Amino acid sequence: MGKPNLIERLRSELLVGDGAMTTYLYQQGVSIGDCTEELVLSDPKLVVGVHQAYYEAGARVIETHTYGANRERLTRYGLEGKVTRLNREAVRLARESVGDDAYILGSIGSICAGRMPAYDEEEYRDMYEEQATALLHAGVDGILLETFLDVKEMLLAVEVIRPLTKLPLLAQFSMLEVGRTRDAFSISTAFQLLAERGVDGVGLNCRLGPMELLRGLEKTVVPEQLVITAFPNASRLGITDGELAYKSNPAYFEQTAELLVEQGVSLLGGCCGTTPEHIRLLAQSLKGRKPVPRRNPQNRETAQPVAVEITERVKPTVVEKVRHKRTIVCEFDTPKDLDISAFLHGASRLHQAGVDAITMADNSLATARMSNLALGAILKEKMGIEPLVHVACRDRNLLGQQSHLMGLHALGIDQILVITGDPTRMGDLPGASSIYDVTSFELIRMVKQLNEGISFAGRQLKQKARFVVGAAFNPHVRQLDAAVRRLEKKVEAGADFIMTQPVYDAQGIIDVHEATKHIPIPIFIGIMPLTGYRNALFLHNEVPGIKISPEVLKRMEQQPDKAAGRREGVAVAKELLEVALSRFNGIYLITPFSYWQMSEELIRFIHQYDSQHIALRA
After folding, report:
1. Second label for 607, Cα 20 to 30 Å away, from 45, 87, 199, 470?
2. Helix (H, G, I), strand (E, B), or coil: what is residue 523?
3. Which of 599, 606, 598 is nearest to 330 (CA)?
4. Each residue of 59-109: pLDDT tens digit?
5. Is the backbone of residue 244 left (phi > 0), alpha (psi -120 to 50) or beta?
């Protein structure tokens, strides 16, 4: 006679799961960053040794070493062709490592993991089906979905896997914010949605230690029919003696386990930082115990967070303006030194000329410049000038990015342009790190999440942000259609307006207009005047995609000095503007080398052009 079904067993008896696999392997000398799932093939004895250590410590629910054995993750190591083999071998090793009284759960981790939730759902469905099928065919006793941050991805995985088997299906979330998922569902709501889709058990694991998982369960309503699991970390990850480590206290782990049991947990194990010693003490204290009936809290949370109303903006945004009239955004770089007097003077002159907003790059060309946040605040508060600041993915990790955006919100700077940012190796500090935690697409979505009153971690904020988000468009590619398709994805991500790279020929302006006229959001066409013949040669020969006509090159070559070169560059820009002004309501002037006088003249030209054409129409 075989073992009873795992769920039946958990309704009548407390069971102990195993502890960490990957962090424990690191303690055994495996290099951090290696694909540890591959060890089931290259060093199976090492994996077997970990399973046996946990079994001997008292664990009777053993997870396969397959948390990251999905096609997406394995592709990073050139192992995408071994998905089925790795998963099946991991099941065999786990089964042969322990006694017949142990249950083997096929571990499936979040594919999205710590990254932002932007992915192809159909591709994810295929990957979950591929991994789950391999685990099920290899003979697991159930499937454990673990360390999921978002309800959306968890539901997708459940919808794929539940029809494949009647074996137990357990689902565990990992919390960034106690009591909520990253996509801002309460854990109560998340558990209810999983119950409706047929899972057998729900729980929490990873990222946080026992006490914070306890806090999460204390405020959560768990559907009656579900068993509850908890696999906390040993503690939060921290730096000890200069090394990243988990503060490990097996006795404390045993002590707090009793509190988790009182919350109705019937399967209790460990996640990152835990060891066989944690599990040994846990098994000793829980031996022979029966589950405690779950008592849900009385104050049930609503299904979705309710954010407060946003405050109204006093002045119209560039998006609101451009839908009705000509709107000029002028880029003017912040200084490379500590003296801001010249910058403020130039900004003032551009404002007087009639620009609608001054946009400031975020360390353009990866060269260190004064913070556009700081100077944007000065322009807005002291000079009454509307700032539009660039936000680069390059310079800040997610923590710094959210903090930066929250600071912009506090200063009332709500018009931004999200860009990828040039790699730091191109700039004046080539040894600096390029962060790129997220792509520009993902950052646009995240800014829009702040507009819903939800932090990057899914925490409900006390206010909604009101960012108007721009996206960049580079038409200087061999296939304009491909660039437009990429642009369409930025619109889908939530972009409110588009700013293009500078265009240097009349036909290019016409081509951009024709290729983008179906785009439902405003487009600001980029115009940057040439400053001389050498500048024209550089752009024509060294900047991919930019072509300057032979006629213009000849005109620039004929200029006798720098001042004449700048005058001719302005003349050429006016000719391009005449083509652009009849097709685009939004104009994006880019000031070269802080020559604000050139942009000032072009701003006045645009206003003169509009006045003349209004008079002609009248």
Report:
1. 470
2. strand
3. 599
4. 999 999 999 999 999 999 999 999 999 999 999 999 999 999 999 999 999
5. beta
Q: How far, in Å, CA of 360 to CA of 397, rounded?
A: 20
| 395: its two tokens | 């310079």
pTM of the model: 0.76
**Among 189, 182, 195, which residue's Cα sits nearest to residue 153?**
182
- CB neighbourhood size of 243 (10 A): 7
Q: How far is residue 67's CA from residue 58's CA, in Å, rounded to a whole number?
A: 22
Quote the pLDDT of residue 615.
58
Instruction: Residue 527: name the closest of 385, 328, 321 by CA.
Output: 328
Mean pLDDT to the nearest integer, 181-208: 94
Tokens at 471, concatenated: 């996206």
Helix, strand, or coil here: 509? helix
The answer on whether 271 is annotated among ligand-binding residues is yes
Alpha-carbon span 107 to 63, nearest angstrom: 6
With residue 498 as reference, give the H or E element that holds it: strand 497-502
Q: Which residues pair with 17 in a beta bridge?
A: 61
- Look at the alpha carbons of 424, 429, 430, 436 in this order and tell me if their dihedral is positive or negative: negative
300 and 188 Cβ atoms separated by less than 8 Å: yes
Angle between helices 550-557 and 533-542 (to 10 degrees): 150
Q: CA separation (Å) from 526 to 14, 154, 189, 377, 491?
A: 66, 43, 47, 25, 18
Provide the token pair at 288.
């022979």
Per-residue pLDDT of 114-143, as tens digits, reads 666 667 899 999 999 999 999 999 999 999
